[in-house]
């Protein structure tokens, strides 16, 4: 599990937003035994929160929650588009497949 979804924020309204997905960071054995998760919160800082504030996220599963979007639009310059098309042709891949690979490499997204 690399991501969790906030399900409550009592006492932490400035740091957590209900419904928002947060990235998990490694915790120590003591922290886990205490029921704590280390997440990067709204301030961009890692902080320990009680596990009851979150639900695990599983990407690619049939039970995946609706995050409110189904597509992403990326705008690139004409020259970048031409380079992507040339690279797609050379690698026998679609342009969208190349863009997805690039995003996966840089964002460390979970595999489907």
The H/E string reads EEHEEEHH
Shape: elongated
**Rg from alpha-carbon coordinates:** 18 Å
Termini Cα gap? 13 Å
- Order of neighbouring strands in the sheet with most strands: 4-3-2-1-5
Total count of domains = 2
Overall average pLDDT: 83
Q: Would you tell me which CATH topology of the largest domain applies?
A: SH3 type barrels
CATH architecture of the largest domain: Roll
Tell me what portion of residues adopts beta-strand conformation. 15-25%
What would your notes on this structure say?
This protein is of the alpha+beta class and 112 residues long. The chain has two domains: 3-56, SH3 type barrels; 78-107, no CATH class. 29% of the residues lie in helices and 20% in strands. The protein has a five-stranded antiparallel β-sheet. A hairpin with a 5-residue loop joins strand 3 (36-40) and strand 4. Helix 2 packs across helix 3 (95-107). The longest helix has 14 residues, at 78-91. The two termini are 13 Å apart. The model has no long low-confidence stretch (mean pLDDT 83).
Which structural traits does this protein have?
five-stranded antiparallel sheet, 3 helices, SH3 type barrels, 2 domains, elongated, alpha+beta, 112 residues
